[in-house]
C-alpha cells in the first residue's frame, strides 16, 4: 500500500504529547527518541505562538522543541491568506496569537475587510458577530476559519472541560450569512504541506501521528502519508473506528505501543532507547 518507508514524522500536540499542563505517558521518551529523526509539530490550536508552546513543553519537563519546528493553524492561515491576496485587509475574531500572525502579512480593518478570520478562544460577542456578518454580506468579505474542530479539550481549575473549537465559533457567521467557510487547519492539506516542505520530505515517506481520526488521520491519509492514531486524547481505547474514515496504519492505545510497533516495523526510524524513565 505504501511504496516508501517512513523517514520523518509529523506530530500533533494536544492529546498526543500533553493534556492541559500534564505530559501524557510516553511523551518524554518519544521526544527524546526523535532527537535524530526529522520531525515537525502541527497543531490546529491557533491561540499560542510556537515559542509559547515550546516553553509550555519545557515547563512540563518535556524536551523543548525548536519553535521553528512548530506550525500552528494561525501561522498556516496567515500564509494561506498572503498567497490569496497581497496586503489583504482583515477582521479577526479569536484570542492569542492569531492577530499578530495576520498583522505580519495583512492589515486589520473592521470597515473594509476582504476577509473575516475566525480563530479560537474567548472574545466572540454580539458586536463582533454583527461586524463580521455585515462585512460578508455587504462587502463580499471571505469567511475563513483557522481550523474546523467542533470542540477542543481544555482544563479549568484542574478539571477537564470541553471548549468550543474553530468549527463551532465560525458556525454563527455561516448560519447568518449562508456562506460556507474556508477551513485552513487539519484535515485540510495546507498545514501538512507546510510541514512537509520544512522537512523536505515527500508525503509518502512521512508518518503523521495524532489523536483524532477526523482531522489528524483523515487529512494525512488523503495526502498519502503513513498514519498512526494514538488513543490518548479525543478518541479513547476501545471505541470502534469511524466507518466513514480510512483505517490508519497504526492504531495504538498509547505512545509506548506505537514506539514498540515502529521499532518492529521500521527499525532506525526512532533513535535507540537510552533512558526508559
Ligand atoms: Mg490533538
UniProtKB/TrEMBL annotation:
<dbReference type="InterPro" id="IPR006357">
    <property type="entry name" value="HAD-SF_hydro_IIA"/>
</dbReference>
<dbReference type="Pfam" id="PF13344">
    <property type="entry name" value="Hydrolase_6"/>
</dbReference>
<dbReference type="InterPro" id="IPR023214">
    <property type="entry name" value="HAD_sf"/>
</dbReference>
<dbReference type="GO" id="GO:0016791">
    <property type="term" value="F:phosphatase activity"/>
</dbReference>
<dbReference type="GO" id="GO:0005737">
    <property type="term" value="C:cytoplasm"/>
</dbReference>
<protein>
    <submittedName>
        <fullName>Haloacid dehalogenase</fullName>
    </submittedName>
</protein>
<dbReference type="Pfam" id="PF13242">
    <property type="entry name" value="Hydrolase_like"/>
</dbReference>
<dbReference type="InterPro" id="IPR036412">
    <property type="entry name" value="HAD-like_sf"/>
</dbReference>
Amino acid at each position: 500500500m505504501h511504496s516508501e518507508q517512513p523517514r520523518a514524522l509529523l506530530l500533533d500536540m494536544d492529546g498526543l504529547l500533553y493534556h492541559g499542563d500534564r505530559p501524557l505517558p510516553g511523551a518524554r521518551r518519544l521526544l527524546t527518541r526523535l532527537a535524530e529523526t526529522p520531525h515537525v509539530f502541527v497543531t490546529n490550536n491557533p491561540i499560542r505562538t510556537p515559542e509559547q508552546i515550546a516553553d509550555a513543553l519545557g515547563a512540563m519537563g518535556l524536551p523543548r522543541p525548536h519553535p521553528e519546528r512548530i506550525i500552528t493553524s494561525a501561522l498556516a492561515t496567515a500564509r494561506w491568506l498572503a498567497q490569496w491576496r497581497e496586503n489583504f485587509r482583515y477582521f479577526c475574531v479569536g484570542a492569542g496569537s492569531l492577530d499578530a500572525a495576520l498583522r505580519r502579512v495583512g492589515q486589520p480593518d473592521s470597515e473594509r475587510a476582504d476577509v473575516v478570520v475566525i480563530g479560537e478562544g474567548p472574545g466572540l460577542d454580539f458586536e463582533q458577530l454583527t461586524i463580521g456578518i455585515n462585512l460578508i454580506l455587504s462587502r463580499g468579505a471571505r469567511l475563513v476559519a483557522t481550523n474546523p474542530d467542533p470542540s477542543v479539550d481544555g482544563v479549568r481549575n484542574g478539571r477537564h472541560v470541553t471548549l468550543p473549537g474553530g468549527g463551532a465559533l465560525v458556525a454563527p457567521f455561516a448560519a447568518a450569512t449562508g456562506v460556507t467557510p474556508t477551513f485552513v487547519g487539519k484535515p485540510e492539506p495546507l498545514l501538512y504541506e507546510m510541514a512537509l516542505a520544512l522537512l523536505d520530505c515527500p508525503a509518502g515517506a512521512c508518518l503523521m501521528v495524532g489523536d483524532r481520526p477526523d482531522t489528524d488521520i483523515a487529512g494525512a491519509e488523503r495526502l498519502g502519508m503513513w498514519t498512526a492514531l494514538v488513543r490518548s486524547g479525543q478518541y479513547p481505547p476501545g471505541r470502534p473506528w469511524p466507518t466513514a474514515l480510512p483505517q490508519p496504519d497504526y492504531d495504538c492505545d498509547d505512545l509506548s505501543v506505537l514506539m514498540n510497533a515502529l521499532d518492529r516495523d521500521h527499525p532506525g526510524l526512532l533513535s535507540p532507547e537510552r533512558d526508559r524513565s
